[in-house]
Amino acid sequence: MAKTAADCTTMTDIRENIDRVDQALMALFAERWSFINRAAEIKVGLGIPADVPERVKEVRDNAHRNATEHGLDGDFYEGIWAELIQHAIEHEKKLLGEG
Length: 99
Description:
Blueprint: H1 11-46, H2 53-69, H3 74-96
Helix pairs in contact: 1-3, 2-3
């Protein structure tokens, strides 16, 4: 059963809820990835390359700001997003036949 951190009274409660949140995060990452695949399909028709530096900067800045707004370490989460972005660019390059 879903609980808030404050509602957890045992390590079992904590672990079950961390696992629940992790599963929800993976579902969100899968949804995000569906948009990456669709972006590649659209980019092919428009002649847009996989790596668009202005957009990369915008997404990284958004990650930093969103993390900070949630009381998290913006630099850390921007770093995670940098890896997500790089992985997506490499995937799109394969789909677009680049490099």
